[in-house]
Write a structure and sequence with these properties.
The protein has 249 residues and is an all-alpha fold. It has nine helices and no strands. The chain starts with a helix and ends with a helix.
Length: 249
């Protein structure tokens, strides 16, 4: 929990620094025009197809549909409804941060001559595609894969999710819709959301399980309210105490 809180705090500080640079046209943002121009000169048909596909899969609409499928599976499948609430809350936090960032910073996108596709006149900081897809992929790893997977599967899941996030972010710069620092800010914000999710998982899920129980919608999965990445219901402190008491008897 201390590590997660430290990571979240560092991410917030990083985003504040990026925002300050954007406002003053200084720091990392000074490299944005050069990066955009260089990337545009590197465009190739095959790379364009990959970028367009990655941008489509990582779009707000696609991620929203995938999120609804995950929520439906958690709610109606294993009936781990406390975890479904946590998933929804974290995705909602990503949406809020994106909207706040865009309307507070009000940064304009790269010039239309760099855009490969329909021109988007909305604000660019941070990249919504990158933030939403990264939070989604991270939550899938943290809440669905990590708790029950083997070490090898966990490593594979983290590598695949990280690579997918990098491709989606890079595609937004490649297609000319975002500056590089828009994407970097989205990655940093997504890590902050995931770090807070880890820190808040146990109390949040315990509260959610209590509320769901009172509403008659309690999750059927035993111990779900205390489930954190790297732990399992069977290894929770209460279960450990119960096993020691049983052996003592």
């Amino acid at each position: 929990m201390l590590t997660g809180a430290g990571v979240a705090a560092a991410c917030v500080a990083g985003v504040v620094g990026l925002v300050d640079g954007v406002d003053e046209h200084a720091d990392l943002s000074t490299y944005d025009p050069g990066i955009t121009s260089s990337v545009a000169s590197m465009r190739r048909p095959v790379l364009t197809i990959v970028a367009e596909l990655a941008s489509l899969v990582g779009s707000e609409v696609s991620v929203a549909v995938l999120s609804l499928l995950v929520l439906a599976w958690l709610w109606f499948g294993p009936r781990d409804r406390a975890r479904a609430v946590l998933f929804a809350g974290a995705m909602g936090a990503g949406v809020v941060l994106t909207l706040l960032g865009k309307h507070l910073v009000e940064r304009h996108r790269p010039a239309a001559r760099y855009v490969m596709g329909p021109v988007d006149n909305g604000y660019s900081f941070p990249s919504g595609h990158t933030l939403f897809s990264t939070v989604f992929l991270g939550l899938v790893v943290l809440l669905l894969v990590w708790p029950t997977a083997t070490r090898g599967t966990r490593v594979t899941a983290v590598v695949v999710a990280s690579a997918a996030s990098l491709v989606v972010g890079a595609s937004r710069v490649y297609l000319g819709y975002h500056w590089a620092t828009d994407v970097v800010a989205a990655w940093v914000l997504a890590v902050a959301v995931l770090a807070v999710t880890v820190v808040a998982a146990t109390p949040f899920m315990a509260l959610a399980a209590t509320l769901l129980t009172r509403m008659g919608l309690a999750p059927a999965t035993a111990g779900a309210a205390t489930l954190l990445p790297g732990t399992s219901p069977a290894s929770s402190p209460d279960d450990a105490k119960g096993s020691h008491a049983s052996s003592a008897r």
